[in-house]
Amino acid sequence: MQDTLVIIPTFNEKENIEKIIRTTFSQKKSFDILVVDDSSPDGTADIVKNLQQEYPKSLFLEIRNKKDGLGRAYIHGFKWAIKKKYDYIIEMDADFSHNPKDLVRLYNKCVKEGADVSIGSRYSRGVNVVNWPMKRVLLSYFASKYVRFVTGMPFNDTTAGFVCYHRKVLETIQLDKIKFVGYAFQIEMKFKAWKHGFNIQEVSVIFTDRTLGESKMSKTIITEAIFGIIKMRFAGLPKPVNS
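That's the Polyprenol monophosphomannose synthase sequence above. Prediction below.
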């Protein structure tokens, strides 16, 4: 067992899952991987099961009964990781929008530089996004700006989904009380970590849009983020410890 677990949530990712697993295992640091699959009808889980024969001690699979949101898939994985006592837990997409080569950088930001949470940031040094249409780039960029304005969070990429957490963060923020399940889940996780005074730092990364499979983004997810953030901001949580 390694000290760090990479959680990869999946739904219909048969085109990407084997390659993302093998690429993650090829990095200079060793990671364990947990795939949380929402009963993909395309056979994603079967591919993972076959790979488990090759990586029996480092590749794990949890299959949920239905697809009910990215946030719930990650929370399922977080609880699994806490139970197994991993020190660091990293969120990563299956579609190579997050580069596995950056996993070590996120890990080192925590282990060597003292961060409790490290964010793979698209916007800490300009706009580092590849293959997105301009409309979506602007939507994402200004959504992050909007979240910063509403919540007061000081980091640039508030909506990022490539994040490394120290286990103590996940143990502290009461996962069962996380309300959002879609796009806003990532915001709520950072907001609560920040409110509890954890050290959150950004690592500049290049985000590359998927080339295989279909995007899971929808208008419902975006609406949840826009209107839910205001409610979250004024939910009566304490001020940040370091403020």
